[in-house]
Amino acid sequence: MESSIYDVSLKSLNEAETIDLSAFKGKYILIVNVASKCGYTPQYEGLQALYEQYSDKLEIIGAPCNQFGFQEPGDSSEIATFCSVNYGVSFPIVEKLDVKGENQHPLYTWLTNKDYNEKDNYSVSWNFNKFLVSPEGKLIAYFPSKTKPQSEEITSLIK
Fold first, then answer.
1. Is 83 considered catalytic here?
2. Is pTM beyond 0.85 here?
3. By CB count within 10 A, which of 15, 43, 77, 145 is most buried?
4. In what order do the strands lie in the sheet with 28-34?
């Protein structure tokens, strides 16, 4: 298992490139498990606005997940089109990931396990759960689905 968040690599949505989280050292990283057919899907709009507002010091990673109510049934092409056409998403969206269970992606093993993140144990309970990582690669906070991307709880930690 990766001992640092910066040891994690992800495949881009089209799998044409690898995204090494080490490239984001010195920036905050907000990692969000996303879905196209969820009641929280309109949060894409807030995520994009947050990304634009803090682009000098924040990276957002959208991780499509189909583990909650099968609300991300699309393939990579459908997901990319949905995000672009409906919300103008310009932050990285990665391949579909499992955020819990036996096939949990190493990124989410690190985010949800105190042995790795050195903060606490978390359970991803639904789509649009958010994890904020510091510019030094430390987990700062976890936010449930209902926490809006542009909420004071999140922006106060980025400022």
1. no
2. yes
3. 43
4. 58-64, 28-34, 130-133, 139-143
